[in-house]
Design goal:
Number of strands: 14
Strand content: 5-15%
Structural class: alpha+beta
Strand order of the largest sheet: 3-2-10-11-12-9-13
Shape: globular
Distance between the termini: 51 Å
Largest sheet: 7 strands, mixed
Number of helices: 17
Radius of gyration: 23 Å
Helix content: 25-40%
Length: 493
């Protein structure tokens, strides 16, 4: 990208950050500002489009142009999701109990979980069971009949996931992205673009931390986490510098934390085995562009903030998405990748020169084996096909491109520490969720090492830029301090 353009390489939209984080850290004072993301716009090669934005009446009319039945069903669909959110949303900010443990304290936590689910009646339990076990394709087929609405809604079931829309469990992946608890009991599914790009979120967090006395260091990679007699003593940097600390919080990928930064002899065998089994596959490719003008869609000429300021979805049907996944399963990049496309500079003019824009294209799939090697030529051809799909619905788009950046699974792993190229530090499948994230017995943000905690995306609440794992690990540390646990476990000289 050129020097006049600001584009976050990977993450491109803020998820639901708890108000507790925003308020307690006074992030607004440090420049944190979110532009709400408008709805979805799905242009089709036949010159039509589906728009899930604007007023309820406008959404209904757009869906009805494909199916009157689907337009009515979508109203019920949103109500159904809202009802589920009221029950399941708060679980996103719950600390997973140690299910199966017979210790009195753990049994109490299990009972508390059941109490939180007390609002579920028999029908609700059935709905949750179906979410955990069904594919997003089967779920949507029960609600809708037209391809465009099924295609748009199916994307949230497979985004960042090594699974196609017909894979079991993808219905719950959809729910994870659509249902969220802001940490204070307020449920919302709102996403948005941060002013100044995603890097501005990090800048605000850093400024807030420093205002409270923290010291932030960058370009200081960790070589190992130091442990003595089962207790953390600090970290050693790759430079050889040793930093002493009674408390260490790791937010790296669990394979890096437990299998690279720690000696396996300091860990229980079952935890090591669990991390070795941890699946972190991905076929995601991020394509970032700088353009000299906004795309003009055949089906909706001219500028429309609800279109250009929302998410542009290239996913004409469930079948097309599944075909793209099956291409990758067969060992070749998708012939027709699906894409989630955002243009954050529509509202945030700090990202590009006047009249120009930056485009973030989140796409899938290439074979997950691409994490083992750069595959530069194949990725370039793949990006060409993604751009060609936009060209088909917005003629002239290709000629508007000034700069291009293509990031595949190999670069995601070796440059950004996303093992396997997985943006969530591990697949969001039902057997890697809640008390299983990342392994049973250690989903409460602790580790077997006294004073060492974990708060990365592979813990519960991770997946998306939410800050929820960080909030939870801080609460856990405060709890251990209140109970005197940290003092009892402080390393002896």
């Amino acid at each position: 990208m050129g020097p006049d353009y600001k584009m976050t390489a990977l993450s491109y939209v803020m998820s639901i950050m708890p108000a507790a984080i925003v308020d307690e850290l006074q992030l607004a004072r440090h420049g944190y500002r979110i532009h709400p993301q408008h709805g979805y716009f799905a242009p089709l090669p036949d010159g039509r489009h589906l728009a899930l934005s604007g007023t309820a009446r406008e959404r209904h009319a757009s869906i009805a142009s494909f199916s009157a039945r689907d337009a009515d069903a979508h109203v019920q669909w949103e109500t159904w999701l809202g009802d589920l959110a009221n029950t399941l949303g708060p679980l996103l900010s719950a600390v997973p109990p140690k299910l199966g443990s017979k210790r009195p304290g753990d049994l109490l936590e299990q009972l508390r979980l059941l109490w939180r689910l007390r609002r579920l009646d028999q029908r609700g339990v059935g709905d949750v069971t179906r979410l955990f076990t069904m594919s997003i394709a089967d779920l949507l087929a029960e609600w809708f009949e037209s391809d465009p609405i099924q295609g748009v809604l199916a994307v949230s079931g497979v985004i960042g996931t090594w699974a196609g829309p017909r894979s079991a469990g993808t219905a719950f992946v959809m729910a994870h992205h659509q249902i969220g608890d802001l940490g204070d009991g307020q449920v919302s599914g709102t996403w948005g673009f941060p002013e100044g790009g995603m890097g501005a979120v990090s800048d605000a967090l850093r400024a807030a931390a420093e205002s409270f006395g923290a010291r932030v260091r960058t370009e200081a990679p960790v070589a190992r986490i130091d442990v003595r007699r089962g207790r953390v003593t600090g970290v050693t940097l790759e430079s050889g510098e040793q930093l002493r600390a009674d408390i260490v919080v790791a937010t790296t990928h669990p394979r890096i934390t437990f299998l690279e930064h720690l000696d396996r002899s300091d860990l229980p065998d079952d935890l090591v085995a669990g991390i070795e089994r941890w699946r972190s596959r991905s076929g995601t490719v991020k394509v970032n562009l700088a353009i000299d003008r906004l795309p003009e869609f055949t089906s909706s000429p001219g500028f429309d903030p609800r279109i250009h300021g929302g998410t542009i979805v290239l996913a004409p049907s469930v079948g097309a998405i599944e075909h793209a996944f099956q291409d990758a399963v067969a060992g070749r990049p998708a012939d027709e990748p699906f894409a989630d496309i955002c243009i954050p500079s529509v509202f945030d003019r700090t990202l590009a020169p006047a009249g120009h824009h930056v485009v973030s294209m989140f796409t899938q799939w290439v074979p997950h084996e691409f994490a083992a090697a750069p595959h530069t030529a194949e990725l370039a051809a793949y990006a060409d096909r993604v751009i060609g799909r936009v060209e088909a619905v917005a003629p002239g788009f290709t000629n508007s491109i000034l700069h291009r950046q293509v990031i595949g699974p190999h670069e995601m792993e070796h440059t950004y520490g996303l093992v396997g190229g997985n943006i969530f530090h591990g697949e969001l499948t039902t057997n890697q969720m809640f008390h299983m994230r990342p392994v049973p017995g250690y989903a409460d943000f602790t580790t077997p090492i006294a004073g060492l905690y974990q708060g990365g995306s592979a813990t519960h609440g991770g997946g998306g830029v939410t800050g929820i794992p960080a909030l939870q690990v801080v609460r856990r540390i405060e709890r251990d301090r209140r109970t005197g646990l940290l003092d009892r476990l402080r390393p002896r000289s």
